Structures are given as C-alpha cells and as structure tokens.
Amino acid sequence: xxxxxxxxxxxxxxxxxxxxxxxxxxxxxxxxxxxxxxxxxxxxxxxxxxxxxxxxxxxxxxxxxxxxxxxxxxxxxxxxxxxxxxxxxxxxxxxxxxx
Length: 99
Hints:
Strand order of the largest sheet: 1-4-3-2
Radius of gyration: 14 Å
Organism: Haloplanus salinus
Low-confidence stretches: none
Domain Halobacterial output: 17-89
Number of helices: 2
Pfam family, one: HalOD1
Number of domains: 1
Mean pLDDT: 80
Protein name: Halobacterial output domain-containing protein
Structural class: alpha+beta
Shape: globular
InterPro entries: HalOD1
C-alpha cells in the first residue's frame, strides 16, 4: 500500500546512480518491485537525471542548486540538490486535452 508522501535523504555513497535510487524509492512507495513499474526511461531521460544530480561516472553534479519534478506512476517525484527525493501523490489533472 502506498503512503501519502515520502521524502528520502541519501548520501552519494549509498546509491549506484540517482536514476536507480529514484526507481528503488518509487518501488518502495508503490509497495512493488522496480520491474513492475513503468520504466523510468519512458517518462524522463534517466541519463539527464544522473548528469544533473551526479551519477556514478562523475564526481560532481552539473546542477549546483535546484530541483527537478516529474510525474511517474501517478505520483510527483522531486529530486533536489540537497540530496533528497520526495514522492507524493500527483494531483488529478483537470485538463481534458493536451496543451
């Protein structure tokens, strides 16, 4: 059963890459396995996440300050440069047609 809201702080040494860490946290949030989720690469460029927030192949992230929010699996996922990932339910869309 998914919780209403989760914020996870992490150390750089605790993850293989930001995109993999996000996928693992979403699986925990949805109480499922990562394999059951829509692949992250189908909703956002996972390599861009690793480049912006610091992947395993580089020492420093390219984004010094800020955050990135995207929709995935009915949730809003926010990555922040303060080394936190927040996952919460996405608001229902009131838009009936693409903008």
